[in-house]
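Morning run. Coffee first, then this:
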Amino acid sequence: MFQEIMKFDGAVLTKMDTDAKGGAGLSIAFATGRPIVFAGTGQGYEDLLQFEPNWLLEQLFE
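And here it is:
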């Protein structure tokens, strides 16, 4: 139902610096069926980075 109401092409994950292993990112991508486009890894605008799937995988298996 969320997807029917809210049309969007990709997700922006914020607060990645507080997510222990990045599991929220996988859940969001799976639940929405949309790619993660940007990830926020800190508090400033300069901490909003283009999302790299390999980086998330490294975080999960670290």
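The chain has one domain: 2-61. Good start to the day.
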